Queue: 3 jobs
Job 1
Amino acid sequence: MSVAKRDTENRKVTTHRLIEMKQKGEKISMLTAYDYSMAQIIDEAGMDVILVGDSASNVMAGNTTTLPITLDQMIYHAKSVMKAAKRALVICDMPFGSYQGDPRKAIESAIRIMKESHVDALKIEGGSEVRESIECILSAGIPVMGHLGLTPQSINKFGTYTVRAKEEAEAAKLVDDARMLEEIGCFGITLEKIPAALGAKVAQERSIPIIGIGAGGGVDGQVLVMQDMLGITSGFSPRFLRRYANLRDDITQAVQCYIEDIKRGDFPNEKEQY
Ligand code: KIV
């Protein structure tokens, strides 16, 4: 695979810079990370945004949904990522139960994440249902990215991870929610698993960056879950996922070689001991 040399300016990416990038038509790259080692590699590779996603619940903790992950666990992951990220803007997901239905709880949760992890911004799932919580967090000077379309924290309401907003009424609500999120002051919106035409419409209508995951090529940037794009996860291959490596096979091969070398008494060799 050829890798195009990109202009990796070393100055720290800010929410304002993302808006400038949208204005200049420069696409925004975003990828999840949950730990120090991977965040360091991703940051040094030139990623614009690192998302400490609540997908950590699935890929780090082995849960079937994002619902079980706690505020303490998200803070732990966010702190680890922040120690590594020098250039990328770091956004942390607010976990399920930390902001819904109670603006006071939302601001307390948000302030805990900001004080303890030092991330740059937060991401919150939902539109009009969580408007008050988002407004309260924004009023404390905390930058917020919205998240519309497929919102995995509502999986028990949807009942399925299928494409969202295919019907007119749901698409219209998404367009309204995106407008509202920009109006109240969100600096960006993630759109997950919606028709490409709807993603492009929202990106055209809004002046804040729209980052897609399964939202087509007409949005301002793309995000994927790191374990998916590196080919570490298996049994998950939605249409939107492009795998850039097959690390599951590479890691399995390396681990099997290591086991074999130990069993054969071939590791350590003469040069590998004191
Ligand atoms: O938690 C996560 O990884 C996310 C992405 C799917 C956007 O929210």
Job 2
Amino acid sequence: MQRPYVIDQMISAKAIAARVEGLAREISTRFAGTDKLVVVGLLRGSFIFIADLVREIDLPIEVDFLEVSSYGDSTESSREVRVLKDLRGEIAGRDVLVVEDIVDTGFTLTHVLKLLATRDPNCVEACVLLDKPSRREVPIRATWTGFEIPDEFVVGYGIDYAQRNRNLPYIGKVRFT
Ligand code: PRP
């Protein structure tokens, strides 16, 4: 049984769209001239962010997905990152952009960047929508960050609480009642 809660809007759909456009512009500039970019979404949380981001990137990219999980249905990180579904494609010699919804303790992104670096890519960078720097246990920072947020339990725009609320078009914070 979940504790009863309400969701208060924290970042509007409009503010997200404007930031996503800005991130995509910077990414397009950084990777201009390459036809080797593979954008890798971390499932499941990044599915909406990557869908919006790639539509604003003006380059000949490929898209792939990696499914990892460290939280399951819990609100506490297990600190053990499990690869549930690997990439379909090879990334040797490719420019790789990992797209993630949120960095909290940092275990997930650190693990994924290390894993992909073992496959001889040309480079691996990360773009995250949300960053909670106050929660960090592993020192990691993405090349691109959409918003730094305080230590609130957030949902929406792909992010869940016990698998619910991923479909909210905005980022909200969970307030237990
Ligand atoms: C969430 C989120 C990030 C990770 C961030 O994933 O999507 O991948 O936790 O936390 P960390 O920095 O403390 O590692 P989750 O395991 O809930 O899977 P999901 O993406 O399928 O929701």
Job 3
Amino acid sequence: MNQTTPPQNLALPVGVTLDRYIIRKQSAFPFATGELSQLLRDIALAGKIINREINRAGLIDVVGGFGAQNVQGENQQKLDVIANIRFIRALKNGGEVCALISEEDEEIIFTGNDHGKYVVAMDPLDGSSNIDVNVSIGTIFSIYRRITPTGTRATLDDFMQGGRKQVAAGYILYGSSTMLVYTTGHGVSGFTYDHSLGEFFLSHAELTSPDNGTIYSCNDGNFNQYPETVRDYLATCRERGYTGRYIGSLVADFHRNLIKGGMYLYPPIPKAPSGKLRLLYECYPLAFIAEQAGGSACDGYRSILDIEPTHLHQRTPLYIGAKGMVEELLSRF
Ligand code: P6P
């Protein structure tokens, strides 16, 4: 053995797995009896399976359109359908979730686990039109403790609690590396997937957003349709020499802005007068994460988390990211 190398350096620790981290933090979970921990593990499992299919997209028959439309009237990609099935199956088999809603399904999905204490709202695969061109895509999820009695069938009320009642929220980013980022209201933690071990390892213990930023993310092709306030703000950003970065994949744009400092904007436009993004399974969860990381999220008038939910697939304008940028824009409305 090389005498100059201390033995412990020959076998460096592999790091903290998601499972170990959840168990260690379980004391911080409300009602810490392990169910929420198991639910997060179920989500991570589905993410690992979907990650594998995304990574082989060009080699197996999962690319391209499925030949149907979802409840939003959007053409479903094959991987949209696959991801939806994978998450529904993982949450059904995990046993902790009594019901869920998905971007891909119009109605509530009942798992049969009526004793499950949680409900989940999710976008199984956001940005899936980018799959064919190998651009990062993501899963977004939001978790609530049910308010209806356990043992009964969940109802719409379980999903209409409002953004500040989320007990956990997160996303999985299938990018140059695959990351799972989540919060339970005690800061934001990021995990990077090690394919060789099949585990998520803690890589960003305390993710925080810079107070301000110089990156704006919006579809410039819609610029002329934006409200005047937004156009004026973006003109100011350009005068200041800010950087425009827009991947067309919300999770990827959100994650980059979370790390580097920036703001994502999806304002109302004539073809989407309430904005494009959905409140319950895109905006609420990302707003929860943004606020937990020291950032902010609003619809131009109020915090995203304070918007009253009225129906499962409602949309909202979204301005989310660095607190200073969101507050400056908000001050102009
Ligand atoms: P547009 C993907 O469809 C998505 O929901 C987000 O991931 C993305 O930021 C946005 O829509 C892109 O929309 O209208 O700019 O193509």
